[in-house]
UniProtKB/TrEMBL annotation:
This is leucine--tRNA ligase. Belongs to the class-I aminoacyl-tRNA synthetase family.
């Protein structure tokens, strides 16, 4: 970080359930847009993460679509040709993270037909779009946050998360990592005895290992790039998604 521009894949997740009224009345296709460095992990997505107390906006994107992101990300998008009016953000609704929780979406590549926006308290407002794809098989942060929601009913209740938005969703094996198997994040969290998302130090260590090994030594287990190394296919998957308008390139 801090060494120049970072290129993300902005994943378009189409709202198909529990659309907030102020978005529905716009009568346009609307998307939660998540920024990821690992587009090939979309095969294992189980949900997306929202910060309940961040304020998001719905804005006019290219092709008559509505994107939901932070205001900051929308402004960056405006200078990258991703908004309807060049260099301009046209806000059509302001919406709190809490209001986004429980929205149901269709997302590219994953085997779950509909997945849900769920709360994560460690999301940063000043990174990406403020919306994060959740891949518990390959991200310790995602695995632990999903497990916390599954095991702690009061946590679900506090944020209005229904059981059916969480309980049926399991990590999907998508990447084989030498020494860590095909569910590298759950495996390392077990090994380091990480109890919850508050175990920040242990989580950081676990992440450093899984992210590095996953990216440089990991091998894809599913999809058309099965058998190939992650570092060789990241760009290919990004292009496949942007070619069919399910993602955009987003820089910051
Ligand atoms: B990655 P970097 Cl499977 N707040 O996506 C907190 N985290 C955020 C965020 C925000 N506002 N925006 C994006 N991120 C996460 C997938 C993934 C990611 C996997 C493995 C590694 C990985 C699934 N979550 O990232 O600080 C997103 O999680 C390794 C770092 O810009 C995004 O990619 O380097 C990554 O952090 C961007 O982090």
């Amino acid at each position: 970080e801090g060494v120049g521009p970072q290129e993300y894949t902005a994943i378009k997740m189409k709202i198909v359930k529990n659309m907030p009224e102020k978005i529905r009345v716009l009568g346009k296709p609307a998307f939660l847009v998540a920024a990821t460095l690992r587009p090939e992990t979309m095969y294992g997505q189980t949900n997306c993460w929202i910060h309940p107390s961040i304020n998001y906006i719905a804005h006019e994107a290219i092709n008559g679509e509505i994107f939901i992101t932070t205001r900051r990300a929308a402004l960056n998008m405006a200078y990258q040709g991703l908004t309807q009016n060049q260099n301009e953000v046209t806000i059509v609704a302001e919406i709190s993270g809490q209001e986004l929780i429980g929205i149901g979406m269709e997302s590219p590549l994953t085997s779950y037909q509909v997945l849900y926006a769920l709360p994560m308290l460690t999301i940063k407002e000043d990174k990406g779009t403020g919306i994060v794809t959740s891949v518990p098989s390959d991200s310790p942060d995602d695995f632990v946050a999903l497990r916390d929601l599954k095991t702690k009913q009061p946590f679900r209740q506090k944020f209005g998360v229904k059981d059916e938005m969480v309980l049926p969703f399991e990590a999907i094996p998508i990447v084989e990592v030498p020494g860590l198997g095909n569910l590298s994040a759950p495996t390392i969290c077990e090994k380091y005895k990480i109890q919850s998302q508050n175990d920040a130090d242990k989580l950081k260590e676990a992440k450093d290992i899984v992210y590095n090994k996953g990216f440089y030594d990991g091998v894809m287990l599913v999809g058309p790039h099965k058998g190939k190394k992650i570092s060789d296919i990241k760009k290919l998957v990004q292009k496949e998604l942007t070619d069919v308008n399910q993602a955009c390139i987003y820089m910051e």
